[in-house]
């Protein structure tokens, strides 16, 4: 996934426009970058594993008639970069093709790169070889490819540039006789381009310089750290992950154990969490949400923003918003370095199948992961269950960028697909915060709650001074945007559609939604952090967030207690693959880390 952009002109254009487009594209990812340029009578390609704003001045662009480029978020394809050049065809691609491995035999060609994008120029070449025309290429690409395809393709020997997209993540505009394009409309507006239109299920074909000459390619590699570490299975490491059967007293109604913070049982063995529970999963009349969104509907274009993680519930929520509510959303994804490729592939699947534009805001992945590493090292020196949440604090800027996307798109309505049963009182409970049984939302705001929480957290941090590191401001500012910033035109679809697991899972099957190879659950499988922190909770306290989720389902009448116990027995098993990915991503040794976790005194 990346931001792509370009300017095609027969005369000089402002270099400030090019810099503006490139800088904005970097918002979508800065892990690598690339350019294709035509100037002085020839095409050439420059690629680098560093940000586009650094590559751009190095390219020495002077009076070109074509400049196209990208700024990339590393996803599929570890060692390869865009633009991808194959058989004389150059491609920039925003998206992920989830079935690229199946396509090669269909077109009678063999891949030479790891990157999924390579299949696009291969399809184009096969189409031309079989007698097809330039105009036939987009339809053939979109016929074969599953997942988001927002593409700029240059065919120098034919003198053509093609722009096409299956989800609308591509816009074209004009300025002073030049053609501009970008992954989003906002940067085109900022440079005062005119006639901006979205490319979706149609194509734009432009004449560019004809050339049969070999295209010169220059690659620069500086990265010292692999952002997608190669997975190597180790039986010795996997055997370190323990999964003891805990003999804990559990509530006789739900399955919460005696190690749950602030739990108390009555004479019948029923816990206070059950006795104070108020149903969170009763749908309001659906007519209410139709009335709420009616003023926001537009005759054309996008009319709402949907925060979109690629997880089970945000995907189902997007389905409801498009298919049931009849809205035209633009989805927004915040990648903070812990979104796995599985999660990104599901984002690509859903966006393509529903024809929905996806806007990505990518953090500085290296910096975010370094923050996690610093805090995890501090945690390992003084393990405290109440401090585990600091490992996921970096994702709270999700809430900040919703407001940014609202301003950039001019859309105020945002619709969320947050599961109402995902309430995990215990995470703050282990820090000393008693449960607020009156909570109506998964994420709660409030100054007094935050002051109490941060005071308790400070006390725990003092036990391990390593917490006072350069990540502190990122952590605190993210929690400010989650808990204090004002939110408007903000509604939850599961207030109006009852959340039922079987219905959700059956719905997602129609989109060929991908499951994880190391667990049977469909919850949090695209989250790189969940397997690790749940391993800690189970090892030390004897339960995980799965126990609290299943307990809420029992209270809602969706599961029997016996069914829930069988489910968590399976779901709480250690996920070696995911845990290994997490520790490799943040740069900590698996064996050393798991040894510390296994040695933490048990609460039972």
From TrEMBL:
RNA-binding is among the record's keywords: no
GO MF, one annotated term: glutamine-fructose-6-phosphate transaminase (isomerizing) activity
Pfam families (UniProt xref): GATase_7 (PF13537)
PROSITE patterns named among the record's database cross-references: GATASE_TYPE_2 (PS51278)
EC number: 2.6.1.16
Keywords: Aminotransferase, Glutamine amidotransferase, Transferase
Gene Ontology BP term (one): protein N-linked glycosylation
InterPro entries: GATase_2_dom, Ntn_hydrolases_N, Rossmann-like_a/b/a_fold
UniProt-listed CDD domains: Gn_AT_II
Top-level taxonomic group: Bacteria
Reactions accelerated catalytically: D-fructose 6-phosphate + L-glutamine = D-glucosamine 6-phosphate + L-glutamate
Domain Glutamine amidotransferase type-2: 2-210
Cited PANTHER family: GLUCOSAMINE--FRUCTOSE-6-PHOSPHATE AMINOTRANSFERASE, ISOMERIZING, GLUTAMINE--FRUCTOSE-6-PHOSPHATE TRANSAMINASE (ISOMERIZING)
Protein name in the entry: Glutamine--fructose-6-phosphate aminotransferase [isomerizing]
Organism: Devosia oryzisoli
């Amino acid at each position: 996934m990346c931001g792509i952009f370009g300017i095609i002109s027969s005369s000089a254009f402002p270099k400030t426009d090019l810099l503006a487009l490139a800088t904005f594209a970097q918002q979508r990812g800065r892990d690598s970058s690339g350019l294709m340029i035509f100037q002085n009578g020839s095409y050439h390609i420059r690629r680098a594993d560093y940000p586009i704003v650094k590559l751009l001045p190095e390219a020495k662009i002077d009076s070109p008639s074509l400049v196209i480029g990208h700024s990339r978020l590393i996803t599929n394809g570890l060692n390869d970069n865009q633009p991808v050049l194959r058989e004389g065809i150059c491609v920039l691609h925003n998206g992920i093709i989830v079935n690229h491995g199946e396509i090669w035999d269909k077109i009678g060609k063999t891949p030479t790169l790891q990157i999924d994008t390579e299949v696009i120029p291969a399809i184009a070449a096969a189409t031309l070889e079989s007698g097809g025309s330039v105009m036939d290429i987009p339809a053939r690409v979109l016929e074969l490819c599953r997942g988001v395809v927002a593409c700029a393709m240059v065919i120098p020997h034919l003198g053509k540039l093609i722009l096409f997209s299956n989800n609308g993540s591509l816009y074209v505009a004009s300025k002073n006789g030049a053609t501009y394009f970008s992954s989003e409309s906002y940067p085109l507006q900022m440079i005062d381009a005119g006639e901006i239109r979205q490319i979706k299920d149609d194509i734009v074909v432009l004449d560019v310089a004809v050339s049969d000459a070999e295209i010169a390619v220059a690659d620069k590699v500086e990265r010292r750290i692999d952002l997608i570490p190669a997975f190597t299975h180790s039986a010795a490491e996997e055997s370190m992950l323990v999964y003891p059967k805990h003999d804990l007293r559990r509530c006789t109604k739900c399955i919460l154990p005696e190690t749950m913070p602030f739990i108390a049982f009555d004479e019948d063995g029923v816990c206070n969490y059950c006795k104070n529970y108020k149903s969170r999963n009763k749908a309001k009349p659906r007519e209410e949400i139709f009335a709420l969104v009616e003023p926001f509907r537009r005759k054309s274009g996008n009319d709402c923003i949907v925060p979109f993680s690629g997880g089970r519930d945000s995907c189902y929520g997007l389905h409801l918003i498009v298919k049931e509510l009849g809205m035209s959303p633009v989805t927004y994804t915040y990648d903070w370095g812990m979104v796995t490729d599985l999660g990104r592939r599901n984002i690509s699947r859903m966006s393509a199948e529903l024809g929905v534009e996806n806007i990505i805001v990518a953090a500085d992945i290296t910096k975010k992961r370094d923050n996690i590493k610093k805090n995890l090292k501090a945690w390992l020196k003084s393990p405290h269950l109440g401090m585990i949440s600091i490992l996921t604090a970096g994702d709270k800027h999700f809430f900040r960028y919703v407001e940014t996307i609202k301003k950039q798109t001019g859309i105020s309505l945002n619709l969320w697909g947050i599961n109402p049963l995902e309430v995990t009182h215990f995470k703050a409970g282990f820090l000393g915060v008693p449960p607020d049984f009156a909570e109506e939302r998964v994420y709660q705001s409030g100054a007094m709650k935050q002051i109490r929480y941060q005071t308790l957290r400070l006390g725990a941090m003092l036990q391990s001074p390593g917490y006072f590191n350069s990540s502190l401001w990122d952590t605190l500012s993210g929690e400010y945007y989650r808990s204090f910033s004002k939110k408007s035109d903000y509604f939850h679809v599961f207030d109006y559609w009852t959340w039922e697991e079987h219905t959700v899972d059956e719905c997602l099957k129609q989109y060929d939604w991908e499951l994880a190879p190391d667990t049977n659950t469909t919850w949090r499988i695209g989250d790189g952090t969940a397997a690790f922190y749940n391993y800690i909770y189970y090892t030390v306290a004897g339960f995980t967030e799965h126990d609290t989720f299943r307990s809420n389902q029992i209270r809602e009448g969706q599961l029997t207690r016996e069914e829930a116990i069988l489910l968590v027995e399976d779901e709480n098993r250690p996920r070696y693959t995911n845990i290994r990915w997490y520790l490799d991503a943040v740069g900590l040794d698996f064996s050393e880390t798991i040894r510390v976790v296994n040695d933490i005194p048990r609460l039972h």
